[in-house]
Input
Amino acid sequence: MPQAPRIELHPVSQRVQVHVHVGGKLLADSSQAFELRESGYPPRHYFPREDVRMDLLTTSETTTHCPFKGSTVYFSLGENKDIAWSYEQPIEGMEAITGKVAFYEQISK
Output
């Protein structure tokens, strides 16, 4: 029996938003997000950068590497450290996530 792929990308047919817990500030609002499903992890929405309030985020010093997606850059919002990340140069086969932004906490859809 063929094994399911480790990572699958799915278009989202509805508008997706991300709000900050404190103050309810809107950080992302998109009708062009997609959902990344990875074995062993919760699904995450990836947003086009133009649909994210990048002016509110600062680049963090944190970086990580995933053998299935590549190296990440993290973003913080004031005291909220590393709340979002992006794969600036993902590995071959994962080009669809290049420069897209994902968040740990998604408040509303």
Observations:
- The chain is about 0% helix and 45% strand.
- The CA atoms of residues 9 and 96 lie 9 Å apart.
- The longest strand covers residues 80-90.
